[in-house]
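Handoff note, outgoing to incoming analyst
You'll be picking up this chain. Sequence as last confirmed:
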Amino acid sequence: MRRFPVIAMAVVVVAGLGAQCLRSQTVGSGYAIPPVEVVDDTGKVVGQFLGFGRATTVGGVAEILLRVGGLAVPMQVMRDRLFTEMFLVFTTTDCTGTAYIADPDATPDLTSMLGIAYAMGPGDQLYRSKAGAVPASQPIQSTWVQPPPFFGPPGGPPSCEASVMSQTVVEAESLLNLGALFDPPYTVQ
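Most recent structure output, in case you need it:
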């Protein structure tokens, strides 16, 4: 089976040949097309490939569905990292203490829109919104930044950045360490 780097696959989407592959489909004379998956360096399946998200200055971003203990977690992946669209924020200045999930557009009612929100945190830790957590405004002092493609210099590692603002957030809890489960680079196959 051929393996393609995640970034190289962005060319396919630009050419207008992108696919949404959620399950095996039968085409033409009955040939089954298996689902497309993203795998890590060891060949372990990371998630089901859903398509490509926004193009960036550093390559394509693959949208995947990661299955974790009966949950379906929407994630994004580049060749060297897994990340989420949501931000993990803190009321401390050093990204420690109680973690909260904030929407990039500061959507005031994010739990009712998404059901469960997910965000990446320090140490490749995946967080989710706590069950029953109610969105509330909090005085945010720091944000866990996941560059690229959205913030920071291309190729820079995730880091804690000072952020002084009041934002509508929902309390988060640690779900699992993705760094302990998967080894980059990631490829589509």
